[in-house]
Amino acid sequence: MWVFSASGCRWLGAGGSLAVAVGGWFAGTLPVRGGWGLWERHGPAPTVAGALLAYLGLTLLVAAWGRYGVLLVRGDGAARDGEPSERGVRDGVLATLVCWTAPLLLAPPLHSADVYSYVAQGAMVLEGHDVYGAGPSVLGPGDLGAEAAASVGGHWTDTPAPYGPAFLLLAAAVVKLTGGAVVPAVLGMRLIALGALALTAWAVRGLGGGTGGRAGALWLAVLNPLFLIHVVGGTHNDGLMIGLVLAGVLLATRGRWVLGSVLVGCAVMVKSPAAVALLFIGVMVARRDGGGARGLAKGLVLPGAVAGAVAAGATVLAGTGFGWLRTQSVAGTIHTALSVTSDLGLGLGLLLGDDPDPVKDLVRKLGLAAALVVIAVLAWRAWRGLLDPVLGLGLSLVALVALSPMVQPWYLLWGTAVVASAAWYGRAGQVLAVLSAALVYETAPSGRTPWYGFVLAGVVAALGLLWARRDPWRAGAAEDADPVGAPTGGPASA
């Protein structure tokens, strides 16, 4: 049937994306005020209808994406739209990406209110407030960004910014150009998200995707509904961090590790988890220098020193001070149900005493310690030549998210995009695809996390993992499944 072809998937997903956007106009994360008559809140009936339409569209998008991935895995000729070449497959994926992204461009914020925090924090910088000492609630009625501040999610209203100065400068520039009005400011932040999407796609193409080719890597990294909904629709700055990290890693694989470290330093100035990439760039430097003690010392010190200089320069340029160093843990004070260590700590704390917080804090710290051990082991294996450093970075970011005290659905993208760039066709890529399809249901279009979101995510995860068990992806079989394959001798194989 046509709907099961690559072309059919493209238009089915585009229809789903359009339904998500239209539903978002009625049930998205709409501003409290300042919607200009475009993004306005509605009564119960239109809101429910919009939510149902958005969920239907999301399901169509996920189904189209999953089917497209199966076509790529099988090497089905239909996946190439008649063009039997790696370039034809890749261009087909990019054309699909455009079709799925376009409907989201003018939609209100979807599945998260974080963009209102970004705008409010940019306004705080312009208004001279200490963005690392107070939350958006300090903005008065006559201040820039006051309308955005009114729409910030409850527990974030008084929370200092956990983001680096580079991102705050971008947010401040958007507020200055738009006068802080909600609609143009959000659309300005979405332009940054689109730039992040383009940068990520460019870097993923450059890294090659390992066995199975670039098309599959793009499919898992940027065609991913979790990326489209939360980076484009929700305008999360995680997309910018991911794009800068991948660009930096790509340059490092090509021997330009200094410039690569500069880009990773910029990524750290967006969100601090990007710092993990410096360790694996260091591994590349050490291996290129012969792998001895001298090379190891060089790899451990120099990329971090370059990124540190970038961080210091960005902080001085922004004029926001070094308060970002002390706010990196503020997000961890908020309990999210996706954090295994927070849930386990809370449960143990309630069993052992009346005050669960001490036990919960201990379990969270042990989780972070375990994540550091996993990262160290993966880096050691990469240094010994037992693991591709890019894949090691991706798996490290996945481990960091899995063991973090605060986990949001889109955090999975940190590692997923990197794993896709190195080895999308394999067990790790397959499991991450299943989790991506599941976690996109966890938050509602309004940004809330309803109980049925977890139910839907659980059902999709269970079905997906059952499929993965019955039809596992094995990298060794990919060359037979996809005669196009990946170009040999590229950065991914270096």
Description:
The chain is mainly alpha-helical and 494 residues long. Helices cover 64% and strands 0% of the residues. 56% of the residues are buried. The model is unreliable at 77-83 and 476-494 (pLDDT under 50).
Q: Give the radius of gyration.
A: 22 Å
Termini gap: 41 Å
Q: Classify the helix fraction into a percent range.
A: 55-70%
Task: Characterize the main sheet.
Answer: none
The tally of helices reads 20
- H and E order: HHHHHHHHHHHHHHHHHHHH
Please, what is the average pLDDT? 90
Silhouette? globular
Beta-strand portion reads: under 5%
Q: What is the SS-derived class?
A: mainly alpha
Low-confidence parts, pLDDT < 50 over ≥5 residues? 77-83, 476-494
Number of strands: 0
Topology summary:
Elements: H1 6-27, H2 44-74, H3 86-101, H4 114-127, H5 146-150, H6 165-178, H7 182-207, H8 214-221, H9 225-233, H10 238-253, H11 257-268, H12 276-288, H13 293-318, H14 340-352, H15 357-383, H16 389-402, H17 412-423, H18 427-439, H19 451-470, H20 478-481
Helix pairs in contact: 1-2, 1-3, 2-8, 3-8, 4-6, 4-7, 6-7, 6-13, 7-8, 7-10, 7-17, 8-17, 10-11, 10-12, 10-17, 11-12, 11-13, 12-13, 12-15, 12-16, 14-15, 15-16, 16-17, 17-18, 18-19
